[in-house]
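A quick aside before the break. I want you to see a complete sequence-to-structure record at least once, exactly as it would be stored in a machine-readable document. Don't worry about memorizing anything.
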Amino acid sequence: MERDVFLTLNGRRWEEDGVETVTSLSAPAQYFEQDGCRYLFYKEAGEGAGAPVKCRIRLQGNILEVNRKGSVSTRLVFEAGARHRADYATPFGLLSFDICTSCIRSLFGEDVGEIEAAYTLEDGNQLIARCELSIKIHKKGKVLQENSR
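That is the input. The structure line, written in tokens, reads:
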């Protein structure tokens, strides 16, 4: 069953020199479950005046996959205890790095859900940054309560 939901995506990144970067995105999305997977589809604004970037989030068990297609294209795989190579195609060229996920957590209720991932970005064995990703999903008027965990 497909449902219209609201998605809030928050990212935190700490560079090796301690500089912290916080990003946030809120957007309407479509959510559905199929064959044991949870899917979210949404669009992000393109770089500059570029076309919107189409995004798909897929959660199956403890594996989170984020696909983006458009002016910026990538496939990011987060799996606790595993290393996955990612190629990030931008208008300025291709960036490649490894995603080393330490933890993935998810919690879903009837009208709300949350997915969290803690990971590092690495180039070979060289640390680029420590990162956290939080994805919150809710129907309009519903919010995941902190004490419901």
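Two observations worth writing down. The domain at 3-142 is CATH 2.40.128.20 (Lipocalin). The chain has a mean pLDDT of 88. We'll return to this after the break.
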